[in-house]
Specification:
Layout lengths: L2 H11 L5 E5 L3 H10 L6 H12 L8 E6 L1 H4 L9 H7 L3 E5 L4 E3 L7 E3 L5 H10 L4 E8 L8 H20 L3 E8 L7 H21 L8 E2 L16 H15 L7 E3 L6 H15 L7 E5 L1 H11 L6 H20 L11
Parallel strand pairs: 1-2, 1-10, 2-3, 3-6, 6-7, 7-8, 9-10
Antiparallel strand pairs: 4-5
Helix pairs in contact: 7-8, 8-9, 9-10, 10-12, 11-12
């Protein structure tokens, strides 16, 4: 696998003003969302949901890549077609989540380290054989009283870099996801400070591990006030703070920046992405796009409710949200026309 192949794949994922669809939630997370709507928490129901997503007409118009979970990449449609092939046939590059989750960080109460490096070389080879052309790993950083610790930042940045190097060795484009959580009552300025510190360390570790920046994507959080903060800054303030942070920390060589939604509402996530592109697109060295999960899927899940009779309307809700986000990437999103649905 040549470096040029990695570069070409990374560029293809964000080409055409498209974004990424994160449909890589774990079985436990998927089951929790199902339970809230009275949907059976079974393998069959999860497969039906993922088939609804993968076969949504027009999904490929706004989505360049889809991140799958281990169970999903092994599943097939009712017609017997693997989901990875269904997506590829629709012009969507299949990807795979390869971390095994955030676990408590020894000696640091309230903080986590993401695991999954053991055996990753072999798993990447298997996933590549199943059609995955990119992968994702999420590190989690909490803001709180005395948090994050330097140890938490360092260990998660190191794991992200080792994962990214293994991906590129396997010919798989790594998506590097250091998420500073929006849980808490911290200010926008505090989130900006922590996010900048995290990104600086992530790119220092990526450099130390020899990761090709042109052959990777960054999946960061937006710079946001905590959900419990008494001050909820404007869309424009969030856009300004986020772009300023990225310009200080993210090398121009990176192929693209695809934001996670992190618990934002569908409409706010779209509006904030649109504001960044409207205000700064001509000045940025990398495309700013989306890699949302709940902010794209939840309206469709609410419409589906596990009922086969609702598949078409749920697919329409899903594709509508992806089109809103493609418009946001273009700086053409109109919040007035995007009432919650």
């Amino acid at each position: 696998m040549t470096a040029q192949t990695l570069i070409d794949t990374a560029r293809a994922l964000v080409a055409g003003d498209k974004g990424l669809l994160a449909m890589d939630e774990s079985n436990a997370t998927c089951n929790k969302r199902f339970a809230a709507l009275g949907i059976p928490q079974t393998e069959g129901a999860r497969r039906d949901w993922r088939e609804l997503i993968a076969t949504a007409p027009g999904l490929g118009d706004s989505i360049g890549g889809a991140i799958l979970f281990d169970e999903t990449i092994r599943q097939k449609t009712h017609a017997g077609v693997p989901f990875a092939k269904v997506l590829a046939d629709a012009g969507i590059i299949p990807g795979i989540k390869v971390d095994t989750g955030a676990k408590p960080l020894a000696g640091h109460p309230g903080e986590t380290v993401t695991e999954g490096l053991d055996g990753l070389r072999e798993r990447l080879a298997e996933y590549a054989g199943m059609g995955a052309r990119f992968a994702k790993w999420r590190g989690v950083i909490a803001i709180g009283d005395g948090l994050p610790s330097r140890a938490c930042i360092d260990v998660n940045a190191h794991a992200l870099a080792r994962y990214a190097a293994l991906c590129q060795e396997a010919g798989v484009v790594p998506i590097v996801e250091p998420e500073v959580l929006m849980d808490g009552s911290h200010s926008l300025a505090r989130c900006a400070q922590v996010t900048e510190e995290v990104l600086r360390e992530v790119f220092a570790q990526l450099s130390a591990q020899g990761v090709l920046l042109e052959g990777m994507l960054l999946k960061p959080n937006m710079v946001l006030p905590g959900q419990g903060s008494p001050v909820q800054d404007s869309v424009e303030a969030v856009a300004d703070a986020t772009v300023a942070c990225l310009l200080r920390t993210v090398p121009a060589a990176v192929a693209g920046v695809a934001f996670l939604s992190g618990g934002q509402s569908a409409q706010l996530a779209s509006a904030r992405l649109a504001a960044m592109n409207t205000r700064f697109k001509s000045r940025l060295p990398w495309p700013l796009t989306f890699s949302f999960s709940r902010a794209v899927q939840q309206p469709a899940l609410d419409a589906w409710k596990g009922d086969a009779a609702n598949v078409a309307v749920a697919q329409q809700a899903l594709v509508f949200r992806t089109r809103c986000n493609r418009a946001a990437r273009r700086g053409e999103y109109d919040a007035q026309k995007d009432a919650p649905r």
